[in-house]
Design brief:
Strand content: under 5%
Number of helices: 9
Strand order of the largest sheet: 1-2
Length: 192
Amino acid sequence: FMQNLTLSPTQMQIGDMIIKEIKARTGFLVDVGLEDLVIGSSGSFIINPKYIIFVDFERFEKAYVEFQTDSSLAVKATAFELASNLYKGSLLPRIEHLHWVMPRVSYYQGLYLQLLKTIIQCEINEDLYSSAQRHAITGLEIEPYDVDFKVASVVCMYAMNNRSLADNYYRNIEGELTNRQKECIAAFKNQN
């Protein structure tokens, strides 16, 4: 097909610019010894099958699973750190609004929010309230109406003896809370 394709001079110029751009962006591969990463095959280009390539999505999911399934706090901390470093909030920043990308964006955001909720619970159980508060705020920055993050924030405020701020925040969210959440907060409020 390509052999029989006739292009206008403008189309040839555009094609030439695109090829130059691709070469410029992938030129670093030679510098790091990966000149055979992309190979020509059957008139197209493919990733050389001798290389194993991991994408951030796969690494994020692996860290998520490790975090959720391992009982060791050290392993959980390492997996959480890796997942947090990989998740930067926007899956595909320039096209995340497109309908075919939105489900994946929601999926990874949901995993990350679940990671935050789990690490917050672990930190509260270990009396690491400052860190739990930071993670609750991170969760609220992404999902400002999530009641679990709001509850964690109030719990941490009470646990760190920041009663006046905790009381004000509690009054603002009290109407959104279940009885169980109110009891959880009351336990920390009465403890300190």
